[in-house]
Write a sequence for this structure.
């Protein structure tokens, strides 16, 4: 008998603010170009912090230094074109970045990075990849922070199974 247990898709998102602007990615989706936090899926054998550092680097060409957990979000989406129904468990982590690394190419399907204010983002909800984009930024602006020490990764995560 197959495993019929429901499992959400675990993702991480970097929430990066500088001088009132947030670092975002514009990425190609099935619905066209959309704005998002630098974000992606947790890979096997990876901690949440490893994942967010990797995703921010891949999508922005900038090294990310995590500072705090902004929040965890459980959200369900039905993709417009495919009809696929997916529940995501997102861990939003704020932190800082340096300058873009010269010569580093952005991962597909990232079109470009850009810095936007919350008001600019609020003015274009049709361009958001999901409602989680604005929710993470609003929570960050509200000062929601939890220590990274809450994000545990058991050492067995890194050990080969067998």
């Amino acid at each position: 008998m197959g495993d019929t247990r429901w499992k959400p898709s675990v993702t991480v998102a970097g929430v990066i603010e500088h001088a009132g602007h947030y670092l975002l990615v514009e990425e190609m989706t099935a619905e066209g170009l959309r704005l998002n936090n630098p974000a992606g899926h947790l890979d096997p054998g990876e901690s949440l912090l490893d994942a967010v550092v990797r995703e921010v680097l891949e999508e922005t060409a900038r090294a990310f230094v995590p500072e705090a957990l902004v929040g965890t979000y459980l959200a369900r989406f039905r993709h417009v074109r495919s009809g696929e129904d997916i529940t995501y468990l997102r861990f939003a982590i704020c932190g800082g970045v340096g300058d873009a690394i010269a010569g580093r190419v952005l991962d597909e399907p990232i079109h470009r990075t850009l810095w936007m204010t919350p008001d600019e983002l609020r003015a274009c909800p049709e361009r958001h990849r999901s409602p989680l984009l604005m929710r993470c930024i609003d929570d960050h602006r509200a000062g929601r922070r939890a220590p990274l020490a809450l994000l545990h990764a058991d050492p067995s995560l890194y050990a080969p199974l067998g």
About this structure: Residues 48-60 form the longest helix (13 residues). The helical segments are 48-60, 118-122, 132-141. Residues 92 and 136 are 7 Å apart (CA to CA).
